[in-house]
Amino acid sequence: MSSLETTNDLQQLLEAVANQKISVSAAQTQLTRAQNIDDLGFAKVDLSRSKRNGYPEVIYGAGKTATQIIEIIGSLKRHAENILCTRVSPEKYALIHAAEPEAVYHEMAQCVALTVKPLPTTAHYIAVVTAGTSDMAVAEEAAVTAEVYGNQVKRIYDVGVAGIHRLFAHLEEIRQAQVVIVVAGMEGALASVVGGLIEKPLIAVPTSIGYGTNFGGLTALMTMLNSCASGITVVNVDNGFGAGYSASMINHLSDTEDDK
């Protein structure tokens, strides 16, 4: 029995425990992983994701109407701690804010955040580093994502290789971070440079910023994937959310280890 989707499934599980065909701990595991879905018709909201993954479902705002986003937020509010919606235009946010006045809009990141239950902030911080000012929108998506999930974040922007002395001025601050996110477009060289100077995990984010042969971020992506610096993990083009999410998971592991 891989999931519990009906009352009959639950009855069978309880009978199996009563007949000693399954242990109490095994049954508890199945109950913890049980599917809990709110079917809104246009969306099936995964209400048990935080139990499985540690984080609630995130709303991808692009392609959804403001009304749909509002309904999904209403569903998640009863089960989530912090709600995050990415890729939301200012026009959509105006409608969302009318329905959810406590929702906060991060304009550069194009993210909407709603705190249902405040989370403690991590002792360790994540450094978000950009090559240029033009990469800041993607970097902000990463930074806001990490902050929504209770991480301390330090932003270090516009320190690309064209003026590499700017990077060295912040190098110690970057080295003290528990996880580093490097966001770069053009040829994407900054990730390799930083990766060769630190001993912490580095998540590289290629951006679509650049001239013709940047190919919408493909050049930066290939540079990062082929980096000779060890310890670099690469996410998709412009995927600040993915970088912030992964960095949060790593950073929280560090805090958990410190608590032991």
UniProtKB/TrEMBL annotation:
Gene Ontology biological process terms in this record: 'de novo' IMP biosynthetic process
PurE domain ranges (all copies): 124-256
InterPro entries: P2CMN_synthase_LarB (IPR039476), PurE_dom (IPR000031)
GO MF terms, alphabetically ordered: hydrolase activity
Species this protein is from: Latilactobacillus graminis DSM 20719
Pfam families reported in the protein's UniProt record: AIRC
Name listed for the protein in its UniProt record: AIR carboxylase family protein
